[in-house]
Amino acid sequence: MNPTRAAFRDHCRASLDGLRREGRYREFARLEKLAGAFPRYRWHGPQGVREVTVWSTNDYLGMGSHPAVLEAARRALAQHGAGAGGTRNISGTSPLHAALEAELASLHGKEAALLFGSGYVANQAALSALLEALPGFHVFSDAKNHASMIAGMRGAKGAVRHIWRHNDLGHLEALLRAAPAEAPKLIAFESVYSMDGDIADIGAICDLAERHGAMTYLDEVHAVGLYGVTGGGISERDGVAARVDLIEGTLAKGFGVLGGYVAGEAAVVDYIRSVAGGLIFTTALPPAVAAASLESVRLLRRDPERRARLAERAAALKAALDAAGLPRLDAPSHIVPVMVGDAARCREVARRLLEEHAIYATPINYPTVPRGTERLRLCATPFHTDAMIAELVAALRAVLPARSAAMAAA
Question: For every residue of 198-212, which 3-state class applies, written as one string?
């Protein structure tokens, strides 16, 4: 017997057993998205197929089911085939990719944009490339930054990483002041934080960056398409996009399709294009995906009513939860975390919602959130009705343990 193989197998089994004991073992619900019935899905469960209402979707605006988006994908599929045919530098760049990058640059008021296969790859590849560009780079990272940003910063050889307390600008300023004045600096942060639903003060962070000679890198993944006059995110809403050096976003959430991107000054974006391994060595997005994304971005730029409907639905969900005395974090964004406070209990609540009430809500456990703050992460899209909200509230009242309310109050 190969001793390394046996030891590794034993380690895997023991680790998985530990995850199961803690209630943190991940199981993927088999959910069949129904384009004509969103947010209704078919759940392929152990007892067969059943229709359920999904409350944990990142297709925040339902654009993944928009008829014009679907038609754009169909046309591109028929014209170009299923795949891109290579990486961006090996036959994988089409006029659709170029048009999408131009549209995204325009969306954020930047000189250029660059597509990646996902938001995760965009953050990982772009941040690593940036932080290796100059020797002795100091990067200042919000404590609740996404794992993809952390991976990019950790992967940058020679970069010095400082972690500032979440949204604590006093702490950020102290770290900036303590860093070598002559060192190149980058502040990396998000606009909407996806687990708590809170929002950064982008303008104040830009003030600190200018005062201390730092660049800014803003992750707008949970805001693009959703906020701002044309869907440019929180930075557009707050009128500060021009002050941010690099804006990173996704095409997989507000725009409902797939892919990630960065937008900024042309020379900086071109440098990332030239050196980022996550772009150079990854097959390009399929033309049908690029076409669908391009149509979605164009539609949302001129559809403020859909964004207004999202905000109204989020407010309605929050009001209904509050009226029922259900525990939620008080967050200003469209993201509505309902607190449970224990990993095993959180999984059990989610299981009962699905099996007993035909409602799907994702349990969020450690390490995504700190232990003791486990939660259900909800979002009311423009297509969640008042009747759906009432059904959700009734189901939560039936399955949530009483101690969750006490924990949330504390």
Answer: CECCHHHHHHHHHHC
Mean pLDDT, the chain, whole residue set: 95
Q: Encode pLDDT of 207-237 as tens digits.
A: 999 999 999 999 999 999 999 999 999 999 9
Contact 281, 87 (CB under 8 A): yes
- Cis ω on the peptide bond leading into residue 39 (within 30° of 0)? yes
15: confidence class by pLDDT, cuts 50, 70, 90 = very high
Q: What is the pLDDT of residue 402?
A: 59
Q: How far is CA 192 from CA 101, 201, 253, 380, in A?
A: 23, 10, 13, 16
What's the angle, vertex CA 35, arms to CA 60 and CA 222, rounded to 5?
A: 15
Amino acid at 197: G
CB 56 within 8 A of CB 359: no
pLDDT at 295 over 50: yes
Mention every residue, 6+ apart, whose C-beta is less than 8 A from residue 158.
Answer: 131, 132, 135, 136, 137
Question: Is 253 assigned a catalytic role?
Answer: yes
Q: At what angle do helices 287-301 and 67-80 cross, to 10 degrees?
A: 150
Phi, psi of 83 (to 5 degrees): -115, 165
The one catalytic residue among 110, 144, 185, 253: 253
If one counts every other C-beta atom within 10 angstroms of the C-beta of residue 181, the result is: 9
Contact 241, 87 (CB under 8 A): no
